[in-house]
Amino acid sequence: MPRELAVFGILIPTLLPIFLASLLLQGALDWALGHAGLYRRMWHPALVRLCLLVCIFSALTLAFYS
């Protein structure tokens, strides 16, 4: 995967679309976990959400760059 993408003549790093995709995936997973009632059993739901985002972003980055 190239390090930069050209979008209308503007170079953007490839980590930006990966981060946006991970935000969408985390939002869908957050919605599903919220409706399942899992966040009521967590000590700190905001930390769980942040950890999920970091894990999803790391997994997508490793999948694209390895």
Which terms summarize this structure?
66 residues; single chain; 2 helices; two-stranded antiparallel ribbon; alpha+beta
Describe it.
65% of the residues lie in helices and 12% in strands. The chain has 66 residues and is α+β, with helices and mostly antiparallel strands. The protein has a two-stranded antiparallel sheet. Strand 1 (4-7) and strand 2 (10-13) form a beta hairpin. The termini are close together.
List low-confidence stretches. Answer: none
- What is the average of the pLDDT values? 92
Rg over CA atoms, rounded to whole Å, is 15 Å
How far the N terminus sits from the C terminus, by CA atoms, comes to 9 Å
Count the strands?
A: 2
> Per DSSP, what share of the residues sits in E-state strands of 2 or more residues?
5-15%
What structural class do you assign from the helix and strand content? alpha+beta
Strand order of the largest sheet: 1-2
Label the overall shape: elongated
The amount of helix comes to 55-70%
